[in-house]
Amino acid sequence: MTETAAPKRDKPWLIRTYSGHSSAAASNALYRSNLAKGQTGLSVAFDLPTQTGYDADHPLAKGEVGKVGVPVCSIADMETLFADIPLDKMNTSMTINATAPWLLALYVAVAQKQGVDVSKLQGTVQNDIVKEYLSRGTYIFPPSPSLRLTNDLIAYTLTEIPKWNPTNICSYHLQEAGATPVQEIAFALSTAIAVLDSATEGGPVPKSALPLMVGRLSFFVNAGIRFIEECCKMRAFGEMWTRICRDRYGVTDEKLTRFRYGVQVNSLGLTESQAENNVQRIVLEMLGVALSKNARARAIQLPAWNEALGLPRPWDQQWSLRIQQVMALETDLLEYGDIFDGSHVIQAKVDALIAGAEAEMARIADHGGIVRAVENGYVKRALVKSHAERMAAIERGDIKIVGVNCFTETAPSPLTQGVDGGFMKVDPKAETEQIARLNAFRQTRDDAAVAEAREKLRAAAAEGGSIMEASLTCAHAGVTTGEWAETLRAVFGEYRAPTGVDQILASPTSDLLVRLREQIRSTGDALGRPLRVLIGKPGLDGHSNGAEQIAVRARDVGYEVIYEGIRLTPRAIAQTALEEGVHLIGLSVLSGSHLELVAQVRQELAALGIDNVPIVVGGIIPDDDAALIQSQGIAAVYTPKDADLNRIMAGMLDVVRTANGLEPYAVAA
Amino acid sequence: MTVLAKSKALDAALPYAGHTTGGRAAVAAALNLLDDRRPRARTEARALLDALAAEVPADKGHVVGVTGPPGVGKSTLTGAIIRHWRSEGRSVGILAVDPSSPIGGGALLGDRLRMLAAAEDDGVFIRSLADRRAVGGLSDEVWPMCQVLIAAFDVVIVETVGVGQRDVDVTHLADTTCLVAQPFAGDMVQFLKAGILEVPQVIAVNKTDLGQDWEGTVAEISAVSATDHGGWTTKVVPTSARNGIGIGGLAAALDAHHTWLSSDGRLAARRRDASADWVLRMLAAEFGRYGISTLGGEAALRARLADSPGSALAQIEALTIQLTGTQT
């Protein structure tokens, strides 16, 4: 055999890890160590107060500071976050939406202070508000001013930072909310159309810049475990996008109409039971967006195997980074052209997805476009319905999840036997330290300059000026994240999105369901009135899919359910419990702030004299925390391990019975 | 500032639910009591309604019914009116009625979400209710609960899902019925013309921001709905709850009807009718049409109820004794 020359390899995608926690300094250290390990770009996770426009010392921020990401209250935090990371050489993705103009302004201001040519900056802000209303929940303002902010940012980057991706239209969170591949494609492309239309028709982007804007639009998708279908989904996305660019917008330049996308492979599908199996899930999910060269992701970030248990440690993130490096560097993946071109099987699936997505897009157009379809609840209802169908299929066993609804027996896992239980805990001092830094920063500011900058921002918002320019002035003047958002809240108002739970969905019939209905009815008779439950999401966490599925099933088994959506203060939850005369309160918390939020809700209930109403809690709650809050009086804790909704319903019923002096049925045992 | 009216009758209901603080807790406890079907609770509920009837003036407050087909934006509009009245310093109590599931009897009650941006105002109290599959759109508990809210709040709003012409309960219950419609497409005109337009005293043509011809709709509705309610002509008001437009005009129309009712004892008469309606409804549910005709028929019963003292529950008890010869 003769030695052949090394084959030509494609350049790998951008390799990132979505990360950030505790403080700007701690996150900066993590970023620098990740870059040293061969990560080629950064992906910043901000904490919920930063995402929803509150300073660390705001009452709503209590318990949330530094939990799901890094807190950034001002330019000082942003400088710390990127200390010793030259921004002109970095490609930075920021998952930020409602406050995107603000965080980009802070990033640009830091670059200016570093002496970097701003026009050379490269990176992405997510800046996609539509999916926030549908799934992720970190919106602030009503749809129309929100879209204006989106467009304002886009108009700014087109001229000032031409290599920046100013919006990353996301179907990622739609899949987590239950979207089928057809719905993912249709909702995301309808969103892209809404953004393009509103930016160029009466918006800040001149019609002549439309091709340029088309070229800067990028997407962010989810990759699930059905990786063949996911691969076809990406090919369908690309075909449809190119067609839309050509037919709707008259843009034909291939460089501008390419479907450019980044990926985070599915995180909410990762299991808490036998969590080690998540490693192979992550690898397979990555295949879906890596195999087909013509539909390959531009940037990939992988979750860590233990995200259903708690926050990943640096070693867990390193494992995920190494998965990408093995795939990109060791395998022959990057040596071939598109290996699916010419496959009849793949093309048939792609065609079917396109047909379905086109039909769905037509329905959305009939509603008056995606924004109207979000406002009138159509899209959210469709997602809740799909999600309920998926949950039902898992309960029936039609969808198999190894370790969850089949093959549940397991040997003890050495991965979770360590002193830390296999995940990281945020330093409980992170919040007080951040508040101290914020207060110290406020002392150093020129208050007159702050007031002047805020007035400039207010005027821009009220009178149609450039939000980005005013935000830059604010950034340099030392305005805080909370002040920036507060200024805009006063002009734009706030919004609450439809929950989608106001529809009849048939739960899968089972003996337990039938028995439950009877038991709930007779328990209501024994207590004098139908059983009423309040499902509440305290804090800033907007991941409402779990709470919605609980609400829908609770209605189906016969409870009268009060559900008010996301981001409620503990006081509002207590007041609602009083006004509605409920028998049980169910709290859902996925942000890791369960200890603080549960304690606050109990305090508020006591202040109203209704601490006799029992509470159950659901979410990503580590075992130790579950034991702790149960010892403090929480009646039951449900985690992703509890995949059978009817058993949760039965458990809730026994909690109500026990709290009212009736014998529990103990069907859940 | 105390936003709730003081009520000894309500405070008496407090121990029922184990509450220790008054005000809103008393309202909540009273509503729970009226919902409770156990015999001991029924006795207490009667005492509560008797005490309220004795304590609360027959023309106190203003009960506004808000109805209309699904999707016209009733809850969002209601929320806007609530904020308007709150800005004038008036307290508002709300009963929001949603349909129960035909299977299992459960319900998802999500109207609070659409009504309020911030839920921490002590001058607003919302109780969501399932219709519990009642035919006319309101469950049996709504009228008594309404009496509690009248005692505590300046304005009471009863919001129902208007699913058709049979959904008329709220018009019996409310002092002022507000129908919410939207700039129509197609068969909506027929639906409205088929009779429901005779009922409301105020009609809001909402969603004027949709871009459809709302002026035409307002004109058309005004033409067919110019109904004379004994001297009151139906007012048609264009609104956009989404953009906060026309809310002051709608509130003014509702207030104008209240002012009109408040003269010549019309309001007290209206409340007596509502009470009689509920008494007849409860009797019919228990004894059927046979019971009503045995007692002399609906017209005679109404006349009798108008003259007889005591609360509605006392009247029901007296008539039940007359029918069965036994005390229940």
Structure write-up:
By secondary structure, chain A is α/β, with parallel strands linked by helices. Chain A folds into 2 domains: 14-376 and 411-416, Methylmalonyl-CoA mutase (TIM Barrel, Alpha-Beta Barrel), CATH 3.20.20; 511-659, Rossmann fold. Helix content of chain A is 50%, strand content 9%. Chain A is built from 26 helices and 15 strands. Chain A has a 5-stranded parallel β-sheet with strand order 1-10-9-8-7. A 5-stranded parallel β-sheet of chain A has the order 2-3-4-5-6, with helices on one face. A 5-stranded parallel β-sheet of chain A has the order 12-11-13-14-15, sandwiched between helices. In chain A, helix 10 (227-247) packs parallel to helix 12 (278-290), helix 18 runs antiparallel to helix 19 and helix 22 crosses helix 26. Chain A starts with 13 loop residues before the first strand and ends in a 10-residue tail after the last helix. Chain B has a 7-stranded parallel β-sheet with strand order 4-2-5-1-6-7-8, sandwiched between helices. Chain B has a domain at 62-264: P-loop containing nucleotide triphosphate hydrolases (Rossmann fold), CATH 3.40.50. Chain B contains 13 helices and 8 strands. Chain B starts with 7 loop residues before the first helix and ends with a helix. In chain B, helix 8 (188-193) links the parallel strand 6 and strand 7 (202-205). By secondary structure, chain B is α/β, with parallel strands linked by helices. In chain B, helix 4 crosses helix 10 and helix 11 packs parallel to helix 13. The chains are: A alpha/beta (669), B alpha/beta (328). At the A-B interface, helix 21, helix 22, strand 12 and helix 23 of A face helix 2, strand 3, helix 5 and strand 4 of B.
